[in-house]
């Protein structure tokens, strides 16, 4: 059986990312997919981008990656852009927006937020109609888009891990590595099955929570001179959303 670690929403939190990558390595998982929002919010954006580039097979673009990387950027994201530099910004711009593959007969699609938009948000308590729309054929850019609805969909964006099955399909959110808003522990998911196989076979989806040194990350953030410091600290300590 093949194993795929699915991570998302690191948001410049290298402390949490290293803890998660260490946990993935201890489990013997070699294939990692990142569902975006590498940058923004946290203090070490270029380091996180470099680490994800080295560790992940595929990185898809998140909404923060998109608007930090835009040429017509808002001044509020200038600090993050300065950290990334020209090379890092180019990397963000060139990221695909979704990936498609088969796993044990399931047509799997992974993206940041929604099959038609980086910015359309579906929460864990969203309506059945909102969740059913997550299986539509993506209009996002990226690898092989087959002209059929998805069987298994994974996404990030909401920073809240959950799984739900209905209408013979499965939807899951892998949660957030660097900015979880359900528990104050980093979160990621593991897919297990026969990668690339279109024939029905056993597969599984599981979730992992990883503790990391939150106060160390807060100290690094405080010393960095980053914007939005207080909301960031509050979110790390409480797992409750703060308006930016």
Give a short summary of the structure.
With 244 residues, the protein is an alpha/beta fold.
Can you describe this structure?
By secondary structure, the protein is an alpha/beta fold. It has helices at residues 14-26, 45-55, 63-69, 78-94, 128-132, 214-224, 229-238, and strands at residues 2-7, 31-34, 58-59, 98-103, 106-111, 152-155, 162-166, 169-173, 186-193, 204-210. The longest helix has 17 residues, at 78-94. The protein is globular, with a radius of gyration of 17 Å.
Low-confidence stretches: none
Provide the CATH architecture: 4-Layer Sandwich
Number of helices: 7
Estimated structural class: alpha/beta
Mean pLDDT: 96
How are strands sequenced across the largest beta sheet?
Answer: 3-2-1-9-10
Q: Give the end-to-end Cα distance, rounded to a whole number of Å.
A: 42 Å
What characterizes the major β-sheet?
5 strands, mixed
Strand content: 15-25%
CATH class: Alpha Beta
Helices and strands, in order, run as: EHEHEHHEEHEEEEEHH
SSE blueprint:
Blueprint: E1 2-7, H1 14-26, E2 31-34, H2 45-55, E3 58-59, H3 63-69, H4 78-94, E4 98-103, E5 106-111, H5 128-132, E6 152-155, E7 162-166, E8 169-173, E9 186-193, E10 204-210, H6 214-224, H7 229-238
Parallel strand pairs: 1-2, 2-3, 5-6, 6-8
Antiparallel strand pairs: 1-9, 4-5, 7-8, 9-10
């Amino acid at each position: 059986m093949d194993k795929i670690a699915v991570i998302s929403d690191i948001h410049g939190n290298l402390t949490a990312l290293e803890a998660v990558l260490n946990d993935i390595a201890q489990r013997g998982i070699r294939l990692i997919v990142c569902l975006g929002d590498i940058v923004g919010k946290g203090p070490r954006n270029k380091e996180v981008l470099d680490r994800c580039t080295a560790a992940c097979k595929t990185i898809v673009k998140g909404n923060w990656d998109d608007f930090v990387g835009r040429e017509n950027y808002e001044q509020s994201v200038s600090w993050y852009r300065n950290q990334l530099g020209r090379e890092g910004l180019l990397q963000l711009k060139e990221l695909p927006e979704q990936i498609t593959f088969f796993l044990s007969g399931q047509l799997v699609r992974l993206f940041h937020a929604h099959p038609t938009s980086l910015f359309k948000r579906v929460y864990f308590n969203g309506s059945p109609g909102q969740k059913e729309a997550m299986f539509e054929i993506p209009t996002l850019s990226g690898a092989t888009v087959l002209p059929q609805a998805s069987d298994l969909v994974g996404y990030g964006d909401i920073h809240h891990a959950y799984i739900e099955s209905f209408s013979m399909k499965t939807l899951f959110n892998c949660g957030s590595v660097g900015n979880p808003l359900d528990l104050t522990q980093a979160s990621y998911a593991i897919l297990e099955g026969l990668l690339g196989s279109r024939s029905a076979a056993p597969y599984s989806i599981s979730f992992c929570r990883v503790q990391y040194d939150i106060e160390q990350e807060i100290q690094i953030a405080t010393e960095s001179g980053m914007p939005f410091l207080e909301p960031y600290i509050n979110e790390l300590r409480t797992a409750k959303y703060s308006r930016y």
